Amino acid sequence: MISGSPATSPATLPQGAWIETGEDGRAVLNRGEQRIALGPGTRIALPAETQVGHTRVDQVRGEARYTVDKRRAPHFEVRTPLVAAVVKGTQFTVTAEGESHSVSTHEGLVAVSAASGGAPAMVGAGLRASVRPGSGVVVEKAPPPKAAAPARKRAVPTKEDQTEDTESDAPDAEAPQVAETEPAVSALADTVVTESEAGAPPKKDEPPATQEPAAPAPAPSPKPEPEPQPVPGDTAEPEEQPAPAPQPEPAPEPGPEAEPAPEPAPEADEEPQPAPQEPAQPEEEDGDEPDAVPAEDDEHDHDHNDVRGTDNDVDGKKNKVDGASNKVTGDDNEVRGTSNTLVGDKNKVDASWTKVSGDKNKVKGAWIEIDGRKNDVEGRDIRVTGEDNKVRGLSVTVAGNRNDVQSTFGVFRIPTLIEGDLNVVRGGGANTIGGSENKLTGSYGTIYGDRNDVEGDHADVEGSDNLVRGANAFVRGVWNNIRGDGNHVEGDYNKVVGDDNTLYGHYNDVEGSGNDVTGDRNVVVGDDNTLFGNLNEVDGNRNLVVGNGNPVRANGGIVYGDGPNATK
């Protein structure tokens, strides 16, 4: 049925049409090099409005096999309630049945993602990606193909069996069922061809039923009835006429003519030799269809490249490429994936949509860009410029050498940015480092400077050689040693143990929480003390000291002045 009308013959479909096949119906849609074969109980539709140059098919249920022409950019999309598949050109089957919808790739690569969202999975030939409600994409080896539909087997016996069938009337009874069960076609195709298990073909075979009169042909069986075969004994008498046997003697006369014949005979022997039936050997290669692709790259055979897949462009020697739309310039590279661009030597890439410029890089993931050497990168949305970097995670940008970064997206998907050398980063992501030899463990951290060692989230450090252990630390200076959460330190060589302390100055030593110190070389042991001055020593809580050189051993004390002259 096409958009509500039964389909029994080829038809041209309007934009926005739909097709549905019955339990024993089938349909085939063709448009140029594109083909969709619908199995029984399948319904698909094409939205009335689609992007120019982009084809989208909505498969509501059932199973359909798609053959899509190859182009440089993705242009064909199939969606079910649970899964979405996007291709540049390949062959694949989409099944939308029950609680698991799947995509099986027969040739090329298919980008498969869950309809609910998430990163796509690249599914190669021989693999199947499936999605269940509320889950992501699961890729596994595709099961063996189903046996051929019995419908075709039925069509074959009808040619001879109809001689015995007065059941030719039965197909006529089934034919209307076909018209009813060959429902609805999508607007994708220019023409639609429907098939049925008991349709017109049986009617075509009806004339052979009229050929049943040929059955009298068995009448020759009475011919054996004239068993006067003993008469052949008389015929044996003509056999006695061997006189004609000497007639073969003239045959030897052509015999001498046969003498030149043996000369062409060896030529016949030579003819089978050139007969390059060796191409029959490719029949063994038929099992490996991609082997036919290297034939397209014969121009590089002299460079010993091993190229499998489609639309790959390789310029160099000893490269191994398996995928689609890859461009490789260099030697000894190993590439697996799709739409990768490499310029360099001895790179190993198992990724998609990745750009690599340099040598001896190792890359795994997607949307990665590398400019440098000996980088080891795994993840997504990563950019690396430099050498000997090791990166694991999502959305990371590194500019420098010998950095070791492991990161993931932050809550707001803020990327990690690293600029410098020998930095080591471990955390949940959204970190920023500008400098060298820094160590950061945490998320949402920011470091500008060198040789800082920070553990904690939301750290903000600007300076060098600082040691920070705690969250929400704010540090400006050098050689500060801070242990605790929420400390704010601006100065050099300060030591803080505790939480929520604020220091402005140098060489201060504070142990406690909630202290506010402005000055140099002060020593504070306690909580919630406030100091303005230098060289003060406070042991207690909630003291206020304004001055220099004051020793305070009290709680809640107030001191103004310097040393012995201070007013308490």
UniProtKB/TrEMBL annotation:
Ranges where the FecR protein domain occurs: 19-110
Pfam families: FecR, LbR_Ice_bind
Compositionally biased spans, kind Acidic residues: 162-172, 281-300
Bias type Pro residues, positions: 215-231, 241-265
Highest taxon of the lineage: Bacteria
Region (Disordered): 136-345
Biased composition (Basic and acidic residues): 301-321
InterPro entries the record matches: FecR, IBP_b_roll, Serralysin-like_metalloprot_C
Protein name: FecR protein domain-containing protein
